[in-house]
Amino acid sequence: MTHSTGSVSACLPINSDLDLVRVRQHVRQMTAQLGFGLVEQTKLVTAASELARNALVHGGGGQMECTSVSSGGIQGLRLVFSDQGPGIVDLDQALSDGYTSGEGLGMGLGGARRLVHEFSIDSRRGIGTTVTVTSWNSRPPRPREAP
Amino acid sequence: MPEQQVAEHETDPAEEVGAFLRRRREQIAQRWADAALFRTVYTVSRDDAVDAGRTVVEALAAVAVSGRVQDAEADGFTVVREQLARTAQARARAGATIAQISEEMDALRPPVTDLLLDELSESPAEHLRECTTALTVLMGTLRLVMLEATTIAGQELINRQRLELLEIATPVIKLWEGIVAVPLIGTLDSARSQVVMETLLDAVVEQHARIAILDITGVPTVDSLVAQHLMKTVAAARLMGAECIVSGIRPAIAQTIVHLGIDLSSVLTRASLADALAYALQQQGAHIVPNPASTVEPR
């Protein structure tokens, strides 16, 4: 599948709780603009919230790049979360539900993977972690509901 | 030769500008009173505007004489900093943007420059240029001081509002004897959820509540941290003998929670606050019966 990638529309810092709010609001706006349904909007916003918090809590802060992409007439949104933290030692373990290195529920990373259409993670010890997620607006716009 | 001309006038341009400002204080203040910045803020009396202008000119003169025309931290500005902030706030309240305020500040410069040029028309070109430059730099610094004061005032306002929001956004409402509800609105971060838990547990004690309803209709995103906060609050309420119901779970949120893999089965949930209240009343042994005598049809 060939993707045409748009230019990076925004690059948001993730350094505080306040930045998490900004990340969520930005993703919500972008998905709404791209015509995502309410459920897909909520899913991607929630995934962004999880991944941004991971970058903040485990990676010591980082950034989110937000890019609109299109493939075969379908529009999507790609989010790249990167941090320069210690990296993830065991990826399989980190992705499994219930595993946590902190005090959370241990559902963030695995949960985020289930909430998006495409998910990839690249983590190097001592260098940092980059998580890339993409969701597509696959359904055509809903017709106006009959009164 | 320009160098010789400078040598003839040994006075420092900044000092000369300071002396000029003191001499022409009244004239400048009068002209400023008609400028947009002063006119729109001091609407009641023109004299107030002139007074305010006089204070600013005096401060500028003090700064110029001290030779620190580029220094926004110069002592001379201290006296007018608060006044400038108040002026800027008044303009902001009237709907002016920072750019507009800055522009209005800039509009104060030409009247002063005109007066200076008039006064120094006989001076050598080089000296004239130095004096106007000093004045321009000084007015630029004044603009910076004003915008800085505005920003600091704005930041204080934001900090205060953040604290207020923390308090305001978590009211506990008594719905019925023994039933309390907390409508949650906005982002449920760690600080907020701590406040929510405290106010809810206090209310459980004060109101002798057996049932507490946490309504999340106004929470835009429920991720694993929010879910964890909710579960902790529910568990704490349960320890105090109150049953907790989480209501206001919208369809999109429900699907997201399922995909996220969070197990909320330990928490009693309802789709709407009305459903939660109906359940709570039922638990209390109270029933809502339509009044047959009422002419209004119950919906």
Automatic annotation (TrEMBL), chain A:
<feature type="domain" description="Histidine kinase/HSP90-like ATPase">
    <location>
        <begin position="39"/>
        <end position="139"/>
    </location>
</feature>
<dbReference type="InterPro" id="IPR036890">
    <property type="entry name" value="HATPase_C_sf"/>
</dbReference>
<dbReference type="InterPro" id="IPR003594">
    <property type="entry name" value="HATPase_dom"/>
</dbReference>
<dbReference type="Pfam" id="PF02518">
    <property type="entry name" value="HATPase_c"/>
</dbReference>
<protein>
    <submittedName>
        <fullName>Anti-sigma regulatory factor</fullName>
    </submittedName>
</protein>
UniProtKB/TrEMBL annotation, chain B:
<dbReference type="InterPro" id="IPR051932">
    <property type="entry name" value="Bact_StressResp_Reg"/>
</dbReference>
<keyword id="KW-0597">Phosphoprotein</keyword>
<protein>
    <recommendedName>
        <fullName>STAS domain-containing protein</fullName>
    </recommendedName>
</protein>
<dbReference type="InterPro" id="IPR036513">
    <property type="entry name" value="STAS_dom_sf"/>
</dbReference>
<feature type="domain" description="STAS">
    <location>
        <begin position="169"/>
        <end position="280"/>
    </location>
</feature>
<dbReference type="InterPro" id="IPR002645">
    <property type="entry name" value="STAS_dom"/>
</dbReference>
<dbReference type="Pfam" id="PF01740">
    <property type="entry name" value="STAS"/>
</dbReference>
